[in-house]
Amino acid sequence: MKKIFFLVILLSSKYIYADEGMWLLTMIKSLNLQSKGFNLSEDDIYAINKSSLKDAVIGLGFEDRAFRFFCTAEIVSDQGLLFTNHHCGFDMIQKHSSVENNLLENGFWAKNNAEELPNEGITASYMVSMYDVSSRILSQIPDTLSDSKKDQYLDSLITIVVNSVEDTSHYSASVKPFFEANKYYLFVYETFKDVRLVGTPPSSIGKFGGDTDNWMWPRHTGDFCILRIYASADGKPAPYSESNIPYKPKHHFPISLKGYKNGDFSMIMGFPGSTDRYETSSGIEQMYEVLNKPAIKMRTQVLDIYKKYMDADEQLNIKYSSKKQQISNYWKYYIGQNRAITALSVIENKKLAEDKLLSVITGDSILNAKYSDVFKNIDSIYNLLRELNYVNQNFYEGIIGVSDMLLLPYSLLQFVGSFDANEMNDSVLVASLERIRVSMLQELSNIDFDLEVTVLANQISTFSEDVPAKYHPSFVKEINKKYKDNSLEYLKKTLSKSNFITEEKINMLLGVTTVAQFKKNIKAIDKDPLFVMLKDVLSTYRLLRKTSIPLRDKLAEYKKDYLNILLLTQDTLKMYPDANSTLRLSYGSIGDYKPRDAVHYKHFTVFEGVMQKEDPKSDEFFVDEKLKQLYKSADYGRYEQDGTVPVCFISNNDITGGNSGSPVLNAKGELIGIAFDGNWEALSCDILFEKQLQKTINVDIRYVLFIIDKFADAQNIIKELTINE
């Protein structure tokens, strides 16, 4: 019976439970949120001609990766103050840290605007508006065009739509496909480029529990940090400047100290990154076997080496803290996802659901004539992709994605590849080389070559053993033959002859002033062994990707057919699209759960739990002395509830990666928490919403304010907030 239950909610949207869904804001009128306990109107959430809740929801991104938001933040004051997660700001915090001034270990609290720290390349965007442009795009593509011509035509149509916004305003725009390219939406953003660090607790609070508690409940992590958006004097986006002023937002979230009870309404708005809720059984089987298993194996090896080096060197520990966090987060996620796929019989249930949908198709003469082989076609493409996907995953996890050292000359490689001495003048060359030089030196400062060589040598050896020899790049073949499989010896020799491992040599190669001088240096660059190795890696990887492109294109075509069937046969008002880093709303309720026999988890944790988990010998469960003093004195102020301070709580909101830092709102649209994690029992969440088990883990806003107020004594921040008691 449980399997039949799951197959129904997986593919037949009219049976989807109400709490499931990452909804586009233009879809929310059909949700009837008031019947679920929401006290405001849909126009209070999303409006174009007046301020609304969406104006206070921020996508955090990188200037060179527009609209691929890595986290969410929320505006909490009329001075552009942002709350987000500590792990979202971790890389920013790490870059401002040193052995002498370790913000990761000690925390940081700016007492005024002048002390706030700029973060180069970080952007903050809010969605101004969105529009369904499916008819403007899809209806314009002639059926007579070849597939390649259709793609070109599609790109040109999207460019026209984007330019219609960006050529007439200071806003930026993006058009994204939904439901496997059966629909297209235009998103208009205002993107700010001056984002500064205002405050962060020490990692002993912001990362309390470390890898051990990651994805787990109960939780006692103060996972928050504070940023601020700055704008030009006229309130518009502007690059960093000392003359910029705090941004005046259209809306900021008031904060509620009234708390919540089991069953209370909760709502989350944010920018979830990616889900595959409509993936088929064959796709999930490959996810389990071909993608996750190699990633788990490779990342386990990297983390073991990181731990050895980081435990022995404080400076190196700071330097690699952010990298380790990025690797370990999804390492544990892949483990949990595979576990959940097995425990919840996801592949089997998907297959049953596909069989059920196939019976609907065969029972309809029109659908049967066009789509009778849809699942057979998808399965056949996945079979053809199986080996290529396995090799690509091992290549990424074992070589390309594992070493900053290997990628050090990447920007220079791109420049050299497009360099034309006949079309280049000296001034343009000098400016271009200076940007590359500064970037390379910045990357160089964050690299420990001893650690990197050890990691990469280990991963190359594993790759060589696990991947068929016909897919090996030239340098791996050379290691196997000339160096008798000794990757470490090969890498040490490569580095000993490279011009990219010291500041002096990089300056010598790139610090030229004429095109003629650089032409001479190109010969040395092209012969550099690290440069040659990177070219070999990239050319092999691109060839593998290129080989799979026709198959991926065909798979996309078949998946588009599959989603079109669902759109034709289901109630589209109750179908939400997969996440793709666009603004979504998720509603649900705060509540406890029972993950397994004899285990019942409460819906919130309290300050006592921090002390119960304390382990002075573990950096994951270290408790700061001042925090212990606050506990002993019970100095909780207005953040107290029943003689303690609530720390975290869980809700059944539907979120995924990218939602980290999202505002958790009550029925009045007040901020009650900050979302930061999912739970271990439901890590199949990107492919299945499991109603009985799926939870979002949130830090209670009262614990956030308690840390800011009582622990940090940052009264300047407290005074800036709108707090409803």
Observed structural traits:
725 residues, alpha+beta, Thrombin, subunit H, 2 domains, eleven-stranded antiparallel sheet, seven-stranded antiparallel sheet, 22 strands, disordered N terminus
Account of the protein in words:
The chain has 725 residues and is α+β, with helices and mostly antiparallel strands. It is 46% helix and 15% strand. It contains 25 helices and 22 strands. The strands form four sheets. Strands 1, 2, 3, 4, 5, 6, 7, 8, 9, 10 and 11 form an eleven-stranded antiparallel beta sheet that branches. A hairpin with a 5-residue loop joins strand 19 and strand 20. Helix 9 packs parallel to helix 13, helix 9 runs antiparallel to helix 16 and helix 13 runs antiparallel to helix 16. The two termini are 47 Å apart.
User: Could you name the CATH topology of the largest domain?
Assistant: Thrombin, subunit H
Oligomer: single chain
The CATH class of the largest domain is Mainly Beta
User: What is the count of distinct domains?
Assistant: 2
CATH-level-2 architecture of the largest domain: Beta Barrel
Averaged pLDDT, please?
Answer: 94
Number of helices: 25
Span of the ends, CA to CA: 47 Å
Residue share in helix? 40-55%
Query: Structural class, from secondary structure content?
Result: alpha+beta
Most strands sheet? 11 strands, antiparallel
Query: Which stretches of 5+ consecutive residues score pLDDT under 50?
Result: 1-18
Shape: globular
The radius of gyration computed from the alpha-carbon positions, rounded to a whole number of angstroms, is 26 Å
> What percent strand?
15-25%
Number of strands: 22
